[in-house]
Recover the amino acids of this structure.
């Protein structure tokens, strides 16, 4: 199961993924995240506190979003990553591409 909550915090667009980002739900994440970005055109903060699981497809979804917003000069920040998910970002060196802010 996966849901994506979207909040406009003023200076940043907050995306709150809940559940699992895997091969079944990554397309939904990409579609909803890009639509939200297109409506607001600002830096994104992904609050991953309720993100329980990410597989390689989910990582691809994050990369897709990052590349999409970079075309307009914006950034993607991620906060509250579960330690196991953060480890996945570190192993794949994605922690160098994303601005990762506090842990879960």
């Amino acid at each position: 199961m996966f849901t994506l909550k979207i909040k406009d915090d003023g200076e940043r667009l907050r995306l709150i993924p809940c559940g699992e980002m895997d091969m079944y739900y990554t397309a939904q994440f990409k579609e909803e995240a890009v639509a939200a970005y297109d409506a607001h055109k600002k830096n994104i903060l992904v609050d991953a506190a309720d993100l329980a699981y990410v597989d390689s497809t989910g990582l691809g979804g994050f990369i897709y979003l990052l590349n999409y917003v970079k075309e307009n000069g914006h950034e993607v920040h991620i906060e509250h990553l579960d330690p196991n998910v953060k480890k996945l970002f570190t192993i794949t060196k994605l922690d160098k591409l994303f601005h990762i802010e506090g842990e879960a």
User: Anything to note?
Assistant: The longest strand covers residues 13-21.
